[in-house]
Amino acid sequence: MSDTRIQLLLAATLTILFAVTASAQSPEPDLINADRPGIADGSTVVGPKTFQIESGIQEEFRRSGDDREHTFFVPTLLRFGIDSHWEVRIEGNTFTRVTEFDPVDNASHTSGFAPVSLGVKYHIYDSNNDQFSLGTIVRVFPAWGSRDFRTQHATGDIRLAADWNLGCSRKLSLNPNIGVGRYEDDPGRLFTAGLFALTLNYLPTKKLNPFVDVGVQSPEAKNGPAGAVLDSGVAYIIGENLQIDASIGTRVHGDTGPRPFLAFGISWRARSHSRK
Question: How many other β-carbons are positioned within 10 Å of the β-carbon of residue 230?
Protein backbone atom coordinates (compact mmCIF):
# COMPACT_ATOMS: atom_id res chain seq x y z
CA MET A 1 0.00 0.00 0.00
CA SER A 2 1.39 3.40 -0.95
CA ASP A 3 2.43 5.98 1.61
CA THR A 4 -0.33 8.32 0.42
CA ARG A 5 -3.04 5.72 1.02
CA ILE A 6 -1.62 4.91 4.45
CA GLN A 7 -1.66 8.58 5.37
CA LEU A 8 -5.25 8.99 4.15
CA LEU A 9 -6.37 5.88 6.06
CA LEU A 10 -4.63 7.10 9.22
CA ALA A 11 -6.20 10.56 8.87
CA ALA A 12 -9.68 9.08 8.38
CA THR A 13 -9.24 6.78 11.37
CA LEU A 14 -8.12 9.64 13.60
CA THR A 15 -11.05 11.80 12.41
CA ILE A 16 -13.58 9.09 13.25
CA LEU A 17 -12.00 8.45 16.64
CA PHE A 18 -12.01 12.18 17.42
CA ALA A 19 -15.68 12.54 16.38
CA VAL A 20 -16.74 9.55 18.50
CA THR A 21 -14.78 10.80 21.50
CA ALA A 22 -16.17 14.32 21.20
CA SER A 23 -19.71 12.97 20.90
CA ALA A 24 -19.27 10.79 23.97
CA GLN A 25 -17.86 13.66 25.99
CA SER A 26 -20.34 16.34 24.89
CA PRO A 27 -22.79 17.26 27.65
CA GLU A 28 -26.44 16.35 27.36
CA PRO A 29 -28.61 19.27 26.24
CA ASP A 30 -30.35 21.20 29.02
CA LEU A 31 -33.95 20.76 27.89
CA ILE A 32 -36.99 22.64 29.16
CA ASN A 33 -38.84 20.77 31.92
CA ALA A 34 -42.44 22.00 32.13
CA ASP A 35 -45.07 21.20 34.75
CA ARG A 36 -47.65 20.84 32.00
CA PRO A 37 -49.28 18.79 30.60
CA GLY A 38 -50.60 16.24 33.05
CA ILE A 39 -52.15 16.61 36.48
CA ALA A 40 -49.08 16.09 38.67
CA ASP A 41 -46.42 18.81 38.89
CA GLY A 42 -42.70 18.04 38.78
CA SER A 43 -40.28 18.31 41.70
CA THR A 44 -37.56 20.43 40.07
CA VAL A 45 -37.32 24.21 39.63
CA VAL A 46 -36.51 26.16 36.46
CA GLY A 47 -33.12 27.35 37.74
CA PRO A 48 -31.58 30.70 38.66
CA LYS A 49 -32.35 33.80 36.58
CA THR A 50 -34.81 31.85 34.45
CA PHE A 51 -38.31 32.77 33.33
CA GLN A 52 -40.71 30.13 32.05
CA ILE A 53 -44.28 30.50 30.82
CA GLU A 54 -46.57 27.48 30.44
CA SER A 55 -49.95 28.21 28.88
CA GLY A 56 -52.57 26.76 26.58
CA ILE A 57 -56.28 26.30 26.06
CA GLN A 58 -58.60 23.81 27.73
CA GLU A 59 -62.19 22.83 26.99
CA GLU A 60 -64.35 20.96 29.48
CA PHE A 61 -67.79 19.40 28.98
CA ARG A 62 -70.34 18.54 31.67
CA ARG A 63 -73.89 17.20 31.65
CA SER A 64 -76.53 16.98 34.37
CA GLY A 65 -79.77 15.45 33.11
CA ASP A 66 -80.83 17.49 30.09
CA ASP A 67 -78.62 20.46 31.00
CA ARG A 68 -75.18 20.78 29.40
CA GLU A 69 -72.22 23.02 30.15
CA HIS A 70 -69.16 23.89 28.09
CA THR A 71 -66.19 25.63 29.77
CA PHE A 72 -63.30 27.21 27.90
CA PHE A 73 -60.30 28.71 29.70
CA VAL A 74 -56.63 29.61 29.31
CA PRO A 75 -54.59 27.91 32.08
CA THR A 76 -51.34 29.80 32.59
CA LEU A 77 -48.34 29.29 34.87
CA LEU A 78 -45.50 31.81 35.19
CA ARG A 79 -42.31 30.53 36.83
CA PHE A 80 -39.45 32.78 38.00
CA GLY A 81 -36.26 31.00 39.04
CA ILE A 82 -34.48 32.40 42.11
CA ASP A 83 -31.68 29.85 42.55
CA SER A 84 -31.14 26.09 42.23
CA HIS A 85 -33.74 25.38 44.94
CA TRP A 86 -36.40 28.12 44.79
CA GLU A 87 -38.82 29.48 42.22
CA VAL A 88 -41.77 31.90 42.45
CA ARG A 89 -45.00 30.91 40.69
CA ILE A 90 -48.09 32.78 39.48
CA GLU A 91 -50.82 30.42 38.31
CA GLY A 92 -54.49 30.43 37.33
CA ASN A 93 -57.11 29.63 34.72
CA THR A 94 -57.12 33.34 33.68
CA PHE A 95 -59.77 34.10 31.04
CA THR A 96 -62.74 31.73 31.39
CA ARG A 97 -65.95 31.38 29.37
CA VAL A 98 -68.85 29.16 30.47
CA THR A 99 -71.73 28.32 28.12
CA GLU A 100 -74.82 26.63 29.56
CA PHE A 101 -77.45 24.88 27.43
CA ASP A 102 -80.98 24.12 28.65
CA PRO A 103 -83.10 21.16 27.39
CA VAL A 104 -84.19 23.11 24.28
CA ASP A 105 -80.59 24.16 23.53
CA ASN A 106 -80.98 27.78 24.53
CA ALA A 107 -77.49 29.03 25.41
CA SER A 108 -76.36 31.50 28.06
CA HIS A 109 -72.79 32.75 28.31
CA THR A 110 -70.68 33.90 31.24
CA SER A 111 -67.11 35.08 30.85
CA GLY A 112 -64.49 36.68 33.06
CA PHE A 113 -61.24 36.07 34.91
CA ALA A 114 -60.73 33.27 37.43
CA PRO A 115 -58.71 33.69 40.65
CA VAL A 116 -54.91 33.62 40.33
CA SER A 117 -52.55 32.06 42.87
CA LEU A 118 -49.21 33.23 44.21
CA GLY A 119 -46.87 30.44 45.18
CA VAL A 120 -43.38 29.00 45.52
CA LYS A 121 -41.71 25.71 44.71
CA TYR A 122 -38.75 24.43 46.76
CA HIS A 123 -36.53 21.63 45.43
CA ILE A 124 -35.79 19.61 48.56
CA TYR A 125 -33.65 16.68 47.42
CA ASP A 126 -31.97 15.19 44.37
CA SER A 127 -30.14 11.83 44.45
CA ASN A 128 -26.60 11.71 43.09
CA ASN A 129 -27.62 9.57 40.11
CA ASP A 130 -30.75 11.63 39.33
CA GLN A 131 -32.85 8.57 40.13
CA PHE A 132 -35.10 10.35 42.64
CA SER A 133 -36.04 13.98 43.22
CA LEU A 134 -38.36 15.63 45.75
CA GLY A 135 -39.88 19.10 45.98
CA THR A 136 -42.76 20.97 47.58
CA ILE A 137 -45.23 23.49 46.12
CA VAL A 138 -47.26 26.01 48.11
CA ARG A 139 -50.02 28.14 46.55
CA VAL A 140 -52.32 30.85 47.93
CA PHE A 141 -55.37 32.08 46.01
CA PRO A 142 -56.50 35.52 47.25
CA ALA A 143 -60.25 36.25 47.22
CA TRP A 144 -60.26 37.62 43.69
CA GLY A 145 -61.94 37.14 40.31
CA SER A 146 -64.35 38.96 38.04
CA ARG A 147 -68.12 38.81 38.42
CA ASP A 148 -69.36 35.20 38.67
CA PHE A 149 -65.81 33.85 39.04
CA ARG A 150 -64.92 35.82 42.15
CA THR A 151 -64.27 33.78 45.31
CA GLN A 152 -65.42 34.83 48.76
CA HIS A 153 -62.45 33.47 50.70
CA ALA A 154 -58.71 33.10 50.32
CA THR A 155 -57.83 29.48 49.54
CA GLY A 156 -54.68 27.47 48.91
CA ASP A 157 -52.86 24.17 48.99
CA ILE A 158 -49.53 22.51 49.74
CA ARG A 159 -48.15 19.47 47.93
CA LEU A 160 -45.12 17.21 47.92
CA ALA A 161 -43.98 16.36 44.38
CA ALA A 162 -41.54 13.61 43.45
CA ASP A 163 -39.87 12.30 40.28
CA TRP A 164 -38.70 8.69 40.27
CA ASN A 165 -36.85 7.18 37.30
CA LEU A 166 -37.60 3.48 36.88
CA GLY A 167 -34.70 1.30 35.74
CA CYS A 168 -31.36 2.11 34.18
CA SER A 169 -32.74 3.15 30.79
CA ARG A 170 -34.72 6.03 32.37
CA LYS A 171 -37.38 5.66 29.71
CA LEU A 172 -40.05 5.13 32.37
CA SER A 173 -40.65 7.43 35.32
CA LEU A 174 -43.29 8.06 37.97
CA ASN A 175 -44.30 11.55 39.10
CA PRO A 176 -46.47 11.36 42.26
CA ASN A 177 -47.98 14.33 44.13
CA ILE A 178 -49.65 14.25 47.54
CA GLY A 179 -51.00 17.15 49.56
CA VAL A 180 -53.84 18.97 51.25
CA GLY A 181 -55.89 21.96 50.15
CA ARG A 182 -58.34 24.45 51.62
CA TYR A 183 -60.85 25.28 48.89
CA GLU A 184 -64.19 26.97 48.26
CA ASP A 185 -67.07 25.15 46.52
CA ASP A 186 -69.67 26.72 44.20
CA PRO A 187 -71.99 27.87 47.05
CA GLY A 188 -68.99 29.59 48.67
CA ARG A 189 -68.43 27.10 51.51
CA LEU A 190 -64.87 26.40 52.66
CA PHE A 191 -63.71 22.80 53.00
CA THR A 192 -60.47 20.84 53.40
CA ALA A 193 -59.51 18.21 50.82
CA GLY A 194 -56.82 15.59 50.41
CA LEU A 195 -54.96 15.69 47.09
CA PHE A 196 -53.25 12.94 45.11
CA ALA A 197 -51.93 12.75 41.55
CA LEU A 198 -49.74 10.24 39.73
CA THR A 199 -48.21 10.52 36.25
CA LEU A 200 -46.52 7.66 34.39
CA ASN A 201 -44.10 9.01 31.77
CA TYR A 202 -42.55 7.13 28.87
CA LEU A 203 -39.53 8.71 27.15
CA PRO A 204 -38.70 6.96 23.87
CA THR A 205 -36.40 9.95 23.19
CA LYS A 206 -35.22 12.90 25.29
CA LYS A 207 -37.73 15.19 23.58
CA LEU A 208 -40.83 12.99 23.24
CA ASN A 209 -42.95 12.23 26.32
CA PRO A 210 -46.23 10.27 26.07
CA PHE A 211 -47.89 9.97 29.48
CA VAL A 212 -50.96 8.80 31.38
CA ASP A 213 -52.03 10.12 34.77
CA VAL A 214 -54.75 10.26 37.39
CA GLY A 215 -55.77 12.96 39.86
CA VAL A 216 -57.90 12.58 43.00
CA GLN A 217 -59.41 15.19 45.31
CA SER A 218 -61.37 14.05 48.37
CA PRO A 219 -63.87 15.51 48.84
CA GLU A 220 -64.49 17.50 45.66
CA ALA A 221 -66.94 19.84 47.51
CA LYS A 222 -68.08 20.31 51.09
CA ASN A 223 -69.85 17.09 52.18
CA GLY A 224 -69.36 15.77 48.65
CA PRO A 225 -67.79 12.56 47.29
CA ALA A 226 -64.23 12.12 46.12
CA GLY A 227 -63.56 13.30 42.60
CA ALA A 228 -61.13 11.63 40.20
CA VAL A 229 -60.04 12.34 36.64
CA LEU A 230 -57.95 10.27 34.24
CA ASP A 231 -56.11 11.65 31.24
CA SER A 232 -53.45 10.86 28.67
CA GLY A 233 -51.41 12.91 26.24
CA VAL A 234 -48.04 13.72 24.76
CA ALA A 235 -45.46 16.49 25.02
CA TYR A 236 -42.73 17.27 22.47
CA ILE A 237 -39.71 19.56 22.91
CA ILE A 238 -38.66 21.69 19.93
CA GLY A 239 -35.04 22.76 20.30
CA GLU A 240 -34.18 23.20 23.98
CA ASN A 241 -36.52 25.94 25.24
CA LEU A 242 -39.89 25.27 23.58
CA GLN A 243 -42.42 22.51 24.28
CA ILE A 244 -45.84 21.78 22.79
CA ASP A 245 -48.39 19.35 24.22
CA ALA A 246 -51.85 17.86 23.81
CA SER A 247 -53.99 15.77 26.16
CA ILE A 248 -57.48 14.36 26.63
CA GLY A 249 -59.18 13.11 29.80
CA THR A 250 -62.41 12.49 31.61
CA ARG A 251 -64.00 12.24 35.05
CA VAL A 252 -63.97 8.69 36.42
CA HIS A 253 -65.54 9.41 39.83
CA GLY A 254 -67.50 12.21 41.48
CA ASP A 255 -70.00 14.80 40.29
CA THR A 256 -68.16 18.03 39.43
CA GLY A 257 -65.31 16.93 37.17
CA PRO A 258 -65.49 17.32 33.37
CA ARG A 259 -66.50 14.51 31.04
CA PRO A 260 -64.51 14.83 28.83
CA PHE A 261 -61.85 17.58 28.60
CA LEU A 262 -59.31 18.52 25.93
CA ALA A 263 -56.14 20.58 26.33
CA PHE A 264 -53.45 21.99 24.05
CA GLY A 265 -50.46 23.90 25.36
CA ILE A 266 -47.13 25.55 24.79
CA SER A 267 -44.24 26.20 27.20
CA TRP A 268 -41.30 28.54 26.64
CA ARG A 269 -38.16 29.22 28.67
CA ALA A 270 -35.88 32.26 28.71
CA ARG A 271 -32.61 32.48 30.65
CA SER A 272 -30.44 35.51 31.31
CA HIS A 273 -27.24 33.46 31.35
CA SER A 274 -25.81 30.20 30.04
CA ARG A 275 -26.06 27.34 32.51
CA LYS A 276 -23.20 24.84 32.50
Answer: 17
